[in-house]
Amino acid sequence: MKILVTGGLGYIGSHTVVALQEEGYEVMIIDDLSNSSITVLEGIEQITNIRPNFELIDLKDKDAVYAFFEAHKNIDGIIHFAASKAVGESMQNPMKYYENNFFSMINILSAIQKFELNNLIFSSSCTVYGQGEVMPITEEESIKHALSPYGNTKQVGEEMIVDLSKVYPLQSILLRYFNPIGAHESACIGESPLGVPYNLIPYITQTAVGTRKFLSIYGSDYNTPDGTCVRDYIHVVDLADAHVRALKRLLEKKNTEQTEVFNVGNGQGYSVLELVRSFERVSGIKLNYKIVDRRPGDVDKAWADTTKAREVLGWKPTKTLDDMLESAWQWEQKVRQLTK
Asked: Which has the closest alpha carbon to 199: 188, 207, 189, 210?
């Protein structure tokens, strides 16, 4: 079966492409390389011995999107990752997020309807919950006003899918994942943002190798045990496995609703300082960090109830926090060697 992965050279997308190819799927990738590199194709090929088909397309360009689908009408499923994805950056540059995330989603959904395609997995986020009222957060948690433009784009993206499903027989699964970290065990692919990273883990690893002078920890007065934000961290390889299982559910027509929702997380919350200690433990390096002012858009705490994904998808996380950080550190060291 042929699967289209948008944003397939990005962090989560590339790991999911590997998982799909290992399961025997033929993968086509669309990416605009705005926050990824063409060299990721080589990493995917090193792991799987298969070089996926790749097309450089800006999904905001409706004509280009339609031309792609006109040329590739035998697509069995789509996994839509392509989006700008950092809470902090979205607070600083909201229009970039609205333009990129909304237009790309609109064009993909319009193409699905026009070319009579089906089976969509949407890369959503726990940010749709805002500050959850009860921990752990279940899929029944109310959707509140988004605390960031990024979170808002995920909320509206979900709404677009639901609205289209009312007039078109789209079968979809929304995966609301928490905080993906880590890298493939081969260290052939990993999280490698262009420029200054907005996500915590690459900032930690870049601080450890000396690329960054110090790690900024945003706030120490949150309503958490040690005052720093608490998040649910999930290994990116475990997250990729959840995408494959969700896709199989749609392809095998086992879904019980047109639009299904699953949380994907580790099911446990860790504070920023706990992450720092874990990294120091696996790397043997003492991190230079500073407590700075809170960052707009951050919630106090969020971690997942993953009961539904375990029971319905047969999925469960397999990596510990130390596993996640050790793999991220191995990837950073590999990147360091390649750039010397």
From this structure: 207
Question: How does DSSP assign 84-142, residue by residue?
Answer: ---HHHHHH-HHHHIIIIIHHHHHHHHHHHHTT---EEEEEEGGGG-S-SSSSBPTTSP
Sort residue 306 into left (φ over 0), alpha (ψ -120 to 50) or beta. alpha
CA distances to 21, 250, 259, 262 from 169, rounded to whole Å, are 27, 13, 10, 20
Q: At how many degrees (to 10) do helices 200-208 and 321-339 cross?
A: 60
How far apart are alpha carbons 124 and 112 in whole angstroms? 18
Asked if 202 and 212 touch (Cβ cutoff 8 Å), the reply is no
Q: Which of 97, 129, 150, 177 is catalytic?
A: 150
Q: What is the DSSP letter of 296?
A: T
- The tokens for 124 are 């959503």
For this structure, is 98 an active site residue? Answer: no
DSSP, collapsed to helix, strand or coil, labels residue 173 as strand
Start-to-end C-alpha separation, the chain: 40
pTM equals: 0.96
Give the tens place of pLDDT for each residue, 129-164.
988 889 999 999 999 888 899 999 999 999 999 999
The rounded Cα 96 to chain-centroid distance in angstroms is 18
